[in-house]
UniProtKB/TrEMBL annotation:
Residues 4-132 form the EVE domain. Pfam families: EVE. This is EVE domain-containing protein. It comes from Pelagovum pacificum. InterPro entries: EVE_domain, PUA-like_sf.
Amino acid sequence: MAHWIGVVHRMQAMTAREAGVVAFGHGKEALVRSLSPGDTVIYYAPKSDFEGEPVQAFVTHARVTGEKAYEKEWRPGLTRWVRDAAFDDADEVPVRPMLEDLTFVRNKRSWGMTFRGGKFSISDEDYVRIATAMGVTP
């Protein structure tokens, strides 16, 4: 089992939650194909939406349930590669108070650069720290 951070706007994370799927990097196939059932995904939202207000928080927590990646209509005329997932009830947790304790944030002064990619893996230790703060049993 692996633990992943997905970087999307809050609105995208909520859309994924409602659909019961995970997607990354504008729906790129390779990013969901690398997942396995049982992997966990924590979505980090830098903003509320593309032009929105800053959020800078971990906003949802999911466990991958789908055996295969597939294409799904995200909204009319737009498809994304996704994997089925079960989302937990989770509290939204601001990232700033956690920065000093997160080992994947190597440069604490330029911490935002850590979240530039669409998806990255995190250690068990960091996963437990974030999931616990979100009120999810690791």
